[in-house]
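User: Heme chaperone HemW, Lachnoanaerobaculum saburreum F0468:
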Amino acid sequence: MSMKRLELYVHIPFCERKCEYCDFLSFSADDGEKRAYVAQLADEIRAQGENYRDYLVSSIFIGGGTPTTLSGIWILEIMNTVRESFIVATDAEITIECNPGTLSKSKIMHIKKAGINRISFGLQSSIEEELKALGRIHTYKGFLQSYQLAREFGFTNINVDLMSGLPYQTIDSYKTTLKRVCELKPEHISAYSLIIEPGTPFFDKYGSGEETALLPDENEDRSMYAITKAVLKEHGYERYEISNYAKPGRECRHNIGYWTGVSYLGLGVGASGYVMNRRFHVEGDYKKYMSIKMQQDITPLYCDIEELDTKANMEEFMFLGLRLIRGVSRHEFNEKFGVDMFEVYDRQIKRNIMLKLMEYNSPYLRLTDKGLDLSNMVMSDFLLD
Ligand code: SF4
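Assistant: Predicted structure for Heme chaperone HemW:
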């Protein structure tokens, strides 16, 4: 019997301190609280494993929050529980997100022992003033120590997250960060532009008023976007998604799975999942989550379950797939939905090809460079009435 493919996302909601721009589900907690969460999460993993006996887990992503605020032993315990409860492929890509200020020798040893083979560092910037403005707990020096530690312990697949559009950031300071990181030769770099979300201290500070002057203006922002592409290309990084770059063959398998519609199961408070045309969210209220009695009937675990109809599935397929530089596969679309992509989206495809925002190179329909710059506008065209 051939097994279905599944990706796992494991959410750890703890951080040492809340960053000023952050709107993720994360908060600080003491060791007692963390211990209780790990126990509850382990119960959830065991209960869910029973429902996915015919799936092969091809990738695992432990994210947050900051998963490395947990002790190494707890990280090992979580991974052991995953392996006991799910069938994990021997070559699975297993990533842990790591804040450089939270890594020690003992922790990295446990991470290695847990079979985790990819580390994602949330560096964001190499300039102290910018890190401070973000409210990050680490320094660039601290990042370098953590990065070297990961290399010493044999990690050969490392991602570094970077951000542009930060307070105090200039074109030159951004170039410095890019150059410093490229010289370290991580296998993968994610480069996002800061989004100031309502409800964060950042929004109150920089959302309007005089302090907005500390942010790069629109022209500088556009230049940073162009510089990212140019500098990373010069250093041998291929852009394979709107904001993601990798050395050849080092693209993040977990994220590619997500963008190409592979089923994924979210575990832990507030995590989301998408399996068999159903999208669902684990209870996001921490107190409620902790009070759920984990059992094989996972209905109480979810705060919402949405059945996606064919139309919604097609839209999702296009929105996510068009983020990839290679684009969406006409073959995969036709196979998945039993109808030709060019029939369903005839008007949109013709129009965007005519405007040179898209191009078709069989079997892939992709955004051109101009289309990628205007991706939100092009993608909104693919909403079906
Ligand atoms: S480390 Fe990440 S998840 Fe934690 S508060 Fe900062 S931005 Fe949010």
